[in-house]
Amino acid sequence: MFIKLLPQQIPQYWDAIKYAARNADRVSESDLPDYLNRLLYSLLSDKAQCFFRIDASRELLAVIITRLIMDELTGVKSLAIQCIYSFKSVVDDEWLVNMNAIESFAINNNCKKVLGYSTNQRIFNLASQLGFSERFRCFVKEV
Description:
Strand content: 15-25%
Structural class: alpha+beta
Helix content: 25-40%
Largest sheet: 5 strands, mixed
């Protein structure tokens, strides 16, 4: 089952969300406190959205965090997938069901695109299978 958490449910599941976001987004230790504070604020104020995939026994299988944004490059409203983290291995067909739910959420919020960022090769492969195309790559160098 794939569900969207309400902002008031975030505190109850914050430890799991924090664990998933921390591992998916790979934020440096020095930036982690600010990152987590900003994420929590965004989730509580519904500026970011959190989706859970759970099994029949209500065990948490995956976390997806999204944000409704104005795409910096195109100027159109888009749904940005900020974080995808799976606690257990999942077949690709299950990801397709989840992506359909994410796309429906995007359409219901008048988004024209769904976009995402990742450093994980598995996510690159999955995104390609789900119909995403690569638009650009981002490089960072600490100075």
